[in-house]
Amino acid sequence: MDLSRFAFARPHVLLVESPGGTASRLALERVLRERGWPLTDSPADADILAVAGTGLRPYADRVWAQLPGPRARVDLAHPEHAGGALDGAQRALFDGAAQGEDAATRSGPPSDQSEGDGMPAGHGMPAAHGMPAGLDMADRAPDRDGLLLDVLHVPWGPALPWWPAGLVLHSRLQGDVLAEVEVSWVGDARSASSFWTSAAEAVGPARTAAAARLDALGRLLAVAGWEGERLRAQRVRDALLDGGEDAVRLAGLAGLQRLHQRVGRSRTLARMTSGLGRLGGGDVTARYRQWLTDAIAALESGADSPVTPLPDDLDDVLTRLLTGTEVSSARLVVASLDPWLTGALVAGAARD
Amino acid sequence: MTDGLALWGAVVLPFGLLLVATTAASLSAALGSAAAGRAVPVRTVLQPVQEAARLLVVRRRRTQHPDALLWRLGGGTLFVTAVLAAAVVPIGDAPVLRSEVGVVWFNAAETLLWAALWLTGWGGNSVAGLIGGYRFLAQALAYELPMMLALITAALGAGSLDVVQVAAAQEDLWFVVWMPVAFVVFLVAALALSFWGPFSQPAGSDAAGGVLAELSGVDRLVVLVGRYAWLAAAAGMSVPLFLGGGAGPLLPSWLWWLAKTLAVLAALVWVRWRWPVVRVDRFEEIAWVVLLPAIVVQALVVSLVVI
Amino acid sequence: MEELGAALVLMALAAAVLAGLYAVHLLLVVDREPLAADPFLSGHPPTEHAVSRYHVRWYAVTLLFLAFDMEMVFMFPWALVVADLGLAAVVEMFGFLAILLVGVLYAWREGALRWT
Questions:
Q1: A207, A236 contact by CB (below 8 A)
Q2: Measuring CA to CA, which residue among B27, C37, B258, B22 is closest to residue A106?
Q3: Are A106 and C35 an interchain contact pair (Cβ–Cβ within 8 Å)?
Q4: Is residue C20 part of a domain?
């Protein structure tokens, strides 16, 4: 038996979403789940880089340079090609000769491969002097208690799994605390709701409203480290977005009620998320529970359920909520605001 | 110099440990397939082998200015200490290494994980790894004392630090029956020290894989093997400590030990798919305020029984 | 000290297994030279070394831990003799533990066990 066929029968995939890539991401997630190809957290563990949509160029390229190889890349513009594109990627992994050549071209230092695309390198950091390879040592700055501590400039997003499309968070990190946060966007991130709008036309606003919330829930569960329930939430989501009839709706409803039992009533998850990201009287726990009840209500009544409107000062809200949190809380808070950031505005859009 | 060490046993031990560890990985793969709504064909048991083959083919990586020596040393320490710990576990009646202080030996091996995980996180000169490494230290502060007290409680019940004697002391009644708290605390600590399932925040998705973030190829394989090996070693240790060792009717004692070990291991693996990750900062409080007093009371009860 | 020799033998054997993995890797890998790669920063280049003086906000817990850890060293030998020494040994040990637990209670009340 050919070794690479055995080794890459189940390649690991790093999936990142670019603005407007929601449909592609959903298609990729579905195919990967059905094939049992795992989604991974970092390029070091990835065999395939899958970019949903096409708007992440410089960032995706830099991540691409970090895949160890054998490696293959999928830039998916058209969701219906997801299966074929992944097949092609796997065939590329099987091709030992081509992979050997690819590896041979990558023997220099990484900066040679990714220089010159004119991206801002962090912010407020002067160019390094005298450090090998141009890396500076950490700077120091006072923390919230006035202690002088090391500060790292760490960006989060856009080429990050389980992250809202197009969001970039420039943080000044002390330990794992985001001491300062600056929000920016790549591309027109807020146009992402168009996917959900067209889905609402295809399968009706109720099922779409439920699916959008399950999509958000899946992302939150991934960040919360609950892989089993994340997979189940995405299964129900995909069933709801299928064109099928009442049977699908009922199956979706049963799946949702099970999620409500297991996830919505999980005391462990509630304990991990309570008190985080308080906004309008609700914390992260309140928000994901609300998604579940709203989704069930939408399916049961067949009607649309109300969605919190997108605040005009979203960047300020994010900055306020995330400043002073540590990394795991920040990720949970960002995930809990997901329907605002990408989609569930659907409902509003579909009504107009 | 090496009294009490069964040399042939020592040669076989790393491979035996790998085999039991692979079983755990296979079971986890099967549960993952089920969660994804896929069929679970028999060949799922080969998935860990497939993963290993993949990582052997994949190229290694070197980040900018890593502390390469400490990075690799940390990764290798996981498996090496797991073998050390497993050496004092009686496979049925006889361990590979018979020691009067086997319980302390296990404890000492497990303590080295503090360094191993932190070095694995630190060595790559990457923010994600750094965060993961420090998360593990905070987690270790939470699980270590309950773990030590659970070990001591079992030793207290037997009046010996020799694991063989601890198992022998349960001839009439398994320790799990009258030390249930110690047993549960031991299993929680076992999950935490293998940064597995609910206690996998040091390798959490929210920090791009934490200590694992920059590892690829065989470097990653070594760390993952070490992690499964520790899961297996801890499950194997729980049997002589609390489940009567190799005691059981009809079957030979080593088979009873194996059956009980696999049962505990299956429970540990299942937990991964059943609960979300427990954030270290919230676990710290629970460990010190709930687990620690509970295990101290358990130790008190046991000591009052033995005097 | 006979365990020391055993430890060295076991460590050597375990390390040999890992060395074997590296050897197999050398035979199978697509390219033997490790890839020089930037650390993963969501597609941004690094601007500084990640290794730094980390803000360890749980430092108070480490002090609490040290106090207990010293105590645990006494507890292993104690476990061997408590059955012979009887109630006095139990009272002494758990009196000591109770004092330490009061310290935990104090640290808890002061919020040292929670840092987020």
A1: no
A2: C37
A3: yes
A4: no
Segments forming the whole domain that contains residue C99: 58-116
CA of A351, closest CA in chain B: separation in Å? 34
Inter-chain touch A3–B276, beta carbons under 8 Å: no
Q: What is the per-residue pLDDT across C41-98, written as a single tens digit (0 to 9) for each?
A: 998 988 888 877 788 888 889 999 998 888 888 899 999 898 888 898 899 999 999 9
Q: Tell whether C75 is covered by a domain.
A: yes
Q: Is B192 exposed, middle or buried (0-12, 13-18, 19+ CB in 10 A)?
A: buried
- The lowest-confidence range among B49-53, B91-95, C20-24 is B91-95
> CB A135 to CB B281 under 8 A?
no
Please indicate, yes or no, if residue C43 is contained in any of the structural domains. Answer: no
Looking up tokens 């959490």, which residue turns up? B204
pLDDT band at B127; cut points 50, 70, 90: very high
Does residue A59 form part of some domain? yes
How many other CB atoms sit within 10 Å of the CB of residue B157? 25
- Please, which chains are in contact with A (at least 3 CB pairs closer than 8 A)? B, C
Nearest to C11 among B64, B84, B289 (CB): B84
Residue with tokens 């399916």: A299
B149 at C interface, C-beta within 8 A: yes
CA–CA dist A125, A309 (Å, integer): 37
Nearest CA in chain B to C93: B300
- Residue C19: inside a domain: no
The CA distances from residue C34 to A44, B63, B66, B89, B173, in Å, are 12, 9, 12, 38, 55
What's the helix, strand, coil split of chain C in %, to 5? 65, 5, 30
Is the domain of A210 the same as that of A254? yes
A176 and A58 housed in the same domain: no
Q: Which chain A residues are within 8 Å of C51, Cβ to Cβ? A: 138
Report ipTM for this prediction: 0.91
| A160 lies in some domain | yes
What is the pLDDT at residue A121? Answer: 39
Number of domains in chain C: 1
Q: Which pLDDT belongs to residue A342?
A: 52
Q: Is some CB atom of chain B closer than 8 A to the CB atom of A44? A: yes
Tokens, residue A221: 């569960």
Which residue is it, tokens 């000769």?
A97
Sign of CA dihedral B94, B99, B101, B105: negative
In the prediction, which pLDDT does A57 show? Answer: 85
Residue A41 touches chain B, beta carbons under 8 Å: yes
What is the structure's pLDDT at B113? Answer: 95
Residue A130 forms part of a structural domain: no
For residues B224 and B201, what is the distance between their CA atoms, to the nearest angstrom?
A: 15
Q: What contacts B22, CB < 8 A, 6 or more positions away? A: B48, B49, B228
- pLDDT tens figures, A76-134: 988 889 999 999 999 999 988 888 888 888 887 665 444 433 333 333 333 333 344 56
Look at chain A and report how many structural domains it folds into: 3
* A56 and A103 together in one domain: yes
Q: What's the pLDDT tens digit per position in B215-231?
A: 999 999 999 999 999 99
Indicate if A98 and A221 belong to the same structural domain: no
Q: Do A156 and C42 touch (CB under 8 A)?
A: yes
Domain that holds residue A74: 3-110
In a shared domain, residues A76 and A160: no
